Structure formats: C-alpha cells, structure tokens
Amino acid sequence: MKKLWLICILCFTAQIQTGAQDFKIPHNKNAALYPQQNQFRNVLDLSGIWRFQKDDDDKGETEQWYTGLKSSEQIAVPGSWNEQIEGIRDYMGIVWYEQNVFVPQGWSGQRVFIRFGSVQYAAKVWVNGIAVGMHEGGSLPFAMEITPMISRNSKNRISVRVENILKPTRIPVGGLPPGGMFSNNPPSSFDFFPYGGIQRPVWLYTIPKNAIKDITVQTTLNTADGVVTVKVEKEGTAKQAKITLEGNKEKLETKGSFTNNVAMMEIKVPAARLWSPDDPFLYHLTVTLINGKDTQDEYELPIGIRTIAVNENQILLNGKPIILKGFGKHEDFPVLGKGTSYPVIVKDFSLLKWIGANSFRTSHYPYDEAFMEMADREGILVIDEIPAVGLYFDDNREQISEREAACIRDIKELVNRDKNHPSVIMWSLANEPIASNRNFRLAGKATADSISLNFFRQLFKTVKEEDNSRLACIVGVQGGPDEWLGLSDVICINRYYGWYAQTGKVNEGANLLSKELDELHGKFRKPIIVTEFGSDAYPGMHADQPEMFTEEYQTELIKAYLDVADTKKFVAGMHVWAFADFKTAQGVIRFGGMNWKGVFTRDRKPKMAAHFLKSRWTKAPGK
Fold it and tell me: Which of the listed residues 143, 178, 207 is the one where a domain comes to its end?
C-alpha cells in the first residue's frame, strides 16, 4: 500500500513539474442532483472571500499559477468580478481564483466532489496543483470527483482559471466586429451585461461508494388519480431502490430492481392534489438505495403532480386553460452583477406575488437553482431558456456548427438540471435569432434557409429526446422568419411596435400587433405568447402627455398591448419586458449603460407601470 501511494505522489509531482495537464470534461450526471446533507451524504459551502488575480497575458498556466497565486487580491464568491473591483468593469479576459479548504475527517471513506453552480464562461480546475477538469458554458452547473487529489490532514488548494472572452462561436454570441446602432462596449451581441466570474455557489460534497446517481420524475393523470414515474440511476453494487411518496395524508411506497444500473418504478396516487399556481402543493419523494436490509444511500426530492399540454388556442395545465401573466427578467443587481443573492431572489418572488404575476421566462440563460426551487414552492410557472442569444446564420458552416454544438450541450445540461421542477412548463431553445448578424428587421419578414431550419430542427429533436413531457419553443424577434416559429409547440414572439418601430405611436403599434397576431394564429393554429413587449422608462421621468422614456408612456404602451391580447382567445400569455431595469454594455441606445424597460428599478422600487399591472392582474374576475 505504501508503494502504491508513493507511485501516486510521484506521478502527481511529475505532472505539476512538467506542466502536463489532463483536463476531463465532467459528465452531466455528476451535477444532476443538488448537494444534500443526510446520514449518507455531506456538503460544505465554499462561499466567501477567495483570492483573485487577472491574467491579461494568459501566462498563468505556463507559470503554473495553480501552485499558488503570487499577486492576488480579494473577491467574493459567488459574484461577478465586474462590479466588485475597481478598474475591471469591462474586462473580458482571463482571471484566476484560489481558495484553501480542509476536508473534514468525518468524510473518510466517501467519494469527494467539487461542484460549481456557474462559471462564466469557461473554467479549468486544479486541486493541489493537479488538473481535475474543464467546462464551457456559463449558466449551468458542473461537478468533478476530486477524491484522489485531496489531502485529509492539511489544507487543500482549489485553483480555477476562468475565461470570459466574447466569441462569435459561443452562446450567447459576442465579439463581432462593430456595426450599426447596436454596437457596444464590451462587444456583446446581446442586450445585457456580459458579467464574468464564479457567479453561483461552490460546494464540496460527498456521496457513498454505492450511490444514487440521478433521479428523473415524470407525472401524468388518470382521471383524478396521479401517476408518478420515477427513474433511478445508480453506481455501485446495490440491487434495489425504494421510493416513498408522502403528502396529502398519503404515504405510498414501491420497490424496483436495477437493470444496467437503472430502476424504473411507478406510484399511483389516489385523488392526487395537483400542483398549480393556485395551489403549489409539493409531495415529498424519498429515494433509497438498498441491498437486502442494508440502506446504502438516500436522496429527498419535492415533486409536484401536474401535466402540461396545448391545443389550438390554449396552454393546458392539468387539463385546464391557463393564461401566463408575468415578465422576462434578468439575474442582475448592483455590485452583485449576476452573483447569487438569496435575499434578492426572495424579494423578486415577493414582488411577483404582489403584482399578481404567475410566470416568468429565464431570459436569457438558466437562472440559479434557488430560483427554480422558489418557483416550485410559490407556484410560479417558468419558461426555462438556454443562453442562445444572438444566433445568426450568414457566416461559415464551421462556426454555425460550433454554435449548434454549444446549444445542444446546454439543452442537455439544462434538462439534466431542471427536469424535476413542476414549475418548468416549457424549454426555450433560443431568443431572437436572426438571419444575418447585421439584419434586425423592424418591417417585413426575413426568410429562413435550409441551414437555419435544420439547425433548429436539431435543437427541437434534442430537447424532445431529453424530455418529452414539456413544451418547447424558440422566441422570435420582430421581422424574423415565421418558419422558425412554426417548429414550436407555442408561438412565442417579442414585439416592440410603438417603441423601436412606429416610434412614439402607441395606437398604431397596437393595431399592427393585433393584425400580426391574427396572421400568425391563422398560419400555425397554435397558442401565442407575447414574450416581450414594453418601453424604456427612466425612473421619475414624467410628462402631462405620454412621451417616450416617461413612466406614463411605458404604462400606456403596456396597457395597449394587454388590451389587444384580451380580444384574442388564442393569446395564452403576456410577458412584459422587463421585470426590473438591468445593466447593459455601453452603446448609443443604452443611456447610462442601462436598459430602463423594467417596471421596477434595478434596486426593486416600483414605477407607475408596476402599480398599473398590480391593479390589472390582481383584479377579481368580472370586476
């Protein structure tokens, strides 16, 4: 045994000294289950103050900064780097993070993993100078086993190289040459700030040697009874799994045996209490891994029994029509940037309930897992979106293929993460794709070509293979090709008549909206959601006659769009853009580096439009 450990130490030492790197791409299943503390599992939150160092010349790997940072400063994790430290707001490059941590002695005998909730955009990770793994994509979690690299008797150094260079082949798209009124700095091709860093919590956690690897829950209805189907994936030698469902005065159990490390089980729930915005009831599911009488692992999961479907005019939740009222929003707050803040999450849900909303879209990337858990508990419906913003199709096939691969990667990672949330009713596969990177049409329609159509067909094929229990859509830009929209289960469009087009003319804009809605429904015979509409309103700016950028104009435009929607039986939802003001890159159309379309200010104070929406959305039916 001593010889074996000596060989391992010599190998690791040689790796550090020679600079040899063996970065593995972590499997999605490593991050499928959120870390959980119980008698079989342990967690340690590494949030706090880390060491931080810029790497302008990309010399950190060559100089082996993973053996210790020499000229670091302090930074908070989670959090974006851009607003924490003076002088690096617009920095889009390479930085390093470092933290030292003891692994508790009580974790002996268990497998140890490190999990990052989000690193924007690409990360490489070392533990004690040993390469662990790498990940691309800035809004989804990844986890890697570090058991062989850790010391049980001394501090362990965690080193992370983070790179946030804006590139045309990434999602969201960035780094294109300047051109037109949408040119900005930093050069993003999307209308929100390109924050970088370790932006969500970092965890150390353990699992036993015989462990539950993943759980997939799907629910259906058989008249009044619920049917809960549970797929359990494991690793190790356990022979059976048991599932226990508790809630609504019921306790139901069943067992299943593993075939090729997978067990399928089903529980019928008599007179099930269905999850909905009016009654977001969650049953308590416990999955237990067993060998005879020996329990080897356990994981608990809240689940909601509900169905989602569509007909020609409506979205059906539990077989009944529902109209989505809510917002597009952003993870954005002063100083924090996109960094996780639990008080801000709680405040946002409090305001959603106050204003009478029942839904939001995770524009334009997956949100922190705490958002999804809150949505489950609060009964807020979610359109869950990958970061596919700024897609275009007039460059070379190789770059288009790279973007397609990034989209497919994020679809799989998103479904893997969020597939068990009852609040998630729809996957959004892209926001405002355009035919050309210089072609935002405000009038007329672009035409889809075979390359773009095949691109989106592949995305829809992927998401339906990953999860066929939910709806799927892409969100269309004004003037975008109708052919793309037709692939969706629900037609989702962003429209700004009366703002970017028909400027200052609310009534004319509303009439054009009404006409286009009729045309789209006549063409596709599917329900429609207007997923963005609104106008900028600078907080406190007023006029006796509604005028652009005043709170009065914003309120009038929102009212006009809602009035149009109320005349259309096929409009299944209206999402105001946006929930709150948010930071953008600098550009001539973004005064102060801000998008002012929020009905709340960036620090969550209500504008006039928020009070109008509250009066409209909380009004009792028929009054």
Answer: 207
Cα–Cα distance measured from residue 496 to residue 621, given in angstroms and rounded to the nearest whole number: 28
Tell me the per-residue pLDDT of 566-614, one tens digit each, with 9 for 90 and over. 999 999 999 999 999 999 999 888 999 999 999 999 999 999 999 999 9
Residues comprising the chain, all counted: 623
Query: Token pair for residue 159?
Result: 């080193």
- Indicate the SS3 state at residue 8: helix
In a domain, 312, yes or no: no
User: DSSP characters for 234-267?
Assistant: EESS--EEEEEEEETTEEEEEEEE-BTTEEEEEE
12-42 core/surface letters (b: 16 or more CB in 10 A; e: else): beeebeeeeeeeeebebebbbbbbbeeebbb
| Known catalytic membership, residue 432 | yes
- Domain boundary among the residues 274, 303, 332 is at 303
Entry pTM: 0.94
Give the whole-angstrom CA distance, residue 320 versus residue 72.
Answer: 57
In this prediction, residue 8 carries a pLDDT of 43
What CATH number has the domain bearing residue 443? 3.20.20.80
117 and 220 fall within a common domain: no
Same domain, 222 and 332: no
Cβ 524 vs Cβ 486: under 8 Å: yes
* Residues 263 and 196 grouped into a single domain: no
- What lies within 8 Å, CB to CB, of 464 at 6+ separation is 472
Distance CA 474, CA 487 (A): 8
Q: Pick the closest to residue 377 from 299, 303, 273 (CA basis).
A: 303
Query: Position 145: which residue type?
Result: E
* Among 532, 547, 552, 556, the one annotated catalytic: 532
- The one-letter code for the residue type at 233 is E
For the chain, the domain total comes to: 3
Is 9 inside any structural domain? no
DSSP-H helix ranges across 436-485 = 450-466, 482-485
Place of tokens 């149009």: 564
Q: How far apart are CA 180 and CA 496, in angstroms?
A: 19
Catalytic residue among 432, 508, 547, 556: 432
Shortest CA distance to 367 belongs to which of 422, 323, 424?
Answer: 424
Residue 179: which domain range? 18-207
Antiparallel, parallel or unpaired: β 594-595 and 528-532? unpaired
Say if residue 228 is in the same domain as residue 199: no
